[in-house]
Amino acid sequence: MATYPQHHIKNTHYDQYLTNISVAYQENGVYIGERVIPVVEVDKQSDRYMVFDYQDHMIADDDIRRAPGTVASEMRTGWSDDAYFCEGYAKRYALYDEEIANADQDRIFNLKEMAAKQVKAKLLLNKEIKSAELLTNPLNFHEDLRVTVGEANTNPDIVKWSDFENSNPIRDIFELREKAERLGAPNLNTLVLSKPVYNILKMHPKFKTRFNEWLSPDFVSDEAIKDLLQVDNLIVANARKATSAQRRVGEGGMTNYIWGNNAVLMYLPSNPGRDVPAAAYTFQWTNPAANVVGNQKTREYYSEESKTLWIETEEWFAQKVVSKVSAVVLPDIVTPISG
Q1: How far apart are CA 94 and CA 92, in angstroms?
Q2: In whole angstroms, what is the distance from residue 318 CA to residue 39 CA?
Q3: Which 3 state secondary structure label does DSSP give 62?
Q4: What does the pLDDT read at residue 25?
Q5: Is 297 helix (H, G, I), strand (E, B) or coil?
Q6: Partner residues linked to 303 by β-bridges
Q7: Structural domains in the chain?
Q8: Is 335 helix (H, G, I), strand (E, B) or coil?
Q9: 3-class SS of residue 306
Q10: Which residues in the chain show pLDDT less than 70?
Q11: What is the phi/psi pair of residue 191, to 5°?
């Protein structure tokens, strides 16, 4: 249910010190949403964005010979476009007068720091869930790059990688990359693995038989996996989500991995930008005139009515696929070790 704070956003300002604390808080790098769907800052809440679905530069049947005294043959690069709309996301943490009054001065700062980290974590969790929903949905990408995954006896496109005897992750990745390239994709240089998939690949015998010099007795190194699969980035998605019944640690059952049992082979540009191909982008609204200043900015303000000091973090963004051939989803690619 939406909430409506007493203080209008334009009448407050962001606390740079609390923002610096919260931005530094990454829970050991557990959230990967902003890494796999790079942030592109935009100054308008809604606008058009470029969809990379033409490959004019690869057309080989043009006659580009130039006779003396003539002009060069003309070309234009085509592209489609679509619209984004940046929505606002915010969370605030209550610090009551009574607990502040009973705290030492150093403790008051610690309370604010803790609050800034907590609201930052909420926004990162929200963005992580949205990132996983976008990138692990095969329907968001080219229909010729959608694969069926299953047990060997069901004749799927790809046998689950947890079936060590019948699966071949190396061949699967190279075959999918080649197919994507033939459809016009850039070199798919990044493999995103949910933690359950990562755990399986670390023990897969297809890797171990080829990289004996890189092995511990039981596990394949990350560098060996990257080298054999020819990817620049191996990104492990370890983030988990809980339900309200699991508020206390160890109660209410098991938490769930946000990225499920999925893997995503994708293209991740080294220098993201609105005119640079990628699988997807996060359009992050930044406009000082609207007091909207980028990702996860934190402010504090006091409410006389409730005698409460609020620590609040907000951001405005939209996530969009910009190239349907720049990612391949491998859905439910393993049966987890934990069952």
Answers
A1: 7
A2: 10
A3: coil
A4: 46
A5: strand
A6: 308
A7: 13-48+83-243+251-330 (3.90.1690.10)
A8: coil
A9: coil
A10: 1-29, 53-62, 64, 71, 73-79, 103-106, 209-218, 339
A11: -120, 120
